[in-house]
Amino acid sequence: MKGPLFYSKILLFGEYGIIKDSKGLSIPYNFYNGALKTEDNPSEEAVNSNKSLKAYADYLAKMDQDLVVFDIKSLQQDVKGGMYFDSSIPQGYGVGSSGALVAAIYDKYASDKITVLENLTREKLLTLKSIFAEMESFFHGKSSGLDPLNSYLSLPILINSKENIEATGIPTQSSDGQGAVFLLDSGITGETAPMVSIFMENMKNDGFRKMLKNQFIKHTDACVEDFLKGDVKSLFKNTKQLSKVVFNNFKPMIPAQFHELWKKGIDTNDYYLKLCGSGGGGYMLGFTQDIKKAEQALKDYKLEVVYNF
Q: Which residues form the GHMP kinase N-terminal domain (predicted)?
């Protein structure tokens, strides 16, 4: 058995801000994917994945049936038969490994599911998002439901506010463009839950809340608008500001060995770094107007280009 593929995602803008109603923009990233599978000679990874699916099935069995009903019997039977999630999506890297799994489970086992083929009204998107938030909170403690939504629909998603999300189009990539968005591999895994609790702790501080509203959210919203309009000049101006704000106020989320590199990008304008997901490790996102320059400046690191301007 092999189920359909579900892709990883990249939240281009909006990490942490969307908790406080900033705009956000999330895009599918087809380089990584995952699917539900069973096979006769499972690897050690498959066996471990199967074990955690067993715990997950028990969790889903207790979920509020007014929200979503699963065919738990089939799910438990398949898990007993050795089903696992075969995934190339790195865990703890901020590209939505649990999101793809949640999307795959919903797709296969939810009764009366909302499908990708129907007219996706705002109401349906919000319903899906709240189902996915509940399903994914098994992995993170608290989830916005956006990662699975992105993975399930395989469409870019524009977050205008908590109650206002829509599938959107993004400007076509220019294949020979010098400008690029890239992933920078930190080489270490990040954990979402501890990073989110540092953020929530900081939110008790009046000065931090002001900074979030007047700087972080302001530049995040501007970046989303610039990106969707294709206004590259303004986008880089706002990304630089965003990179500075993160450097000055989100230090714990940036692995210590990258502090210097982060600042160097701002000082030289060769590239600007920002968090990809909750930070603390995994990938960082980079924006550059000249990918050759950025590659030269970051030659000791692994870069993956995800979008060209």
A: 83-147
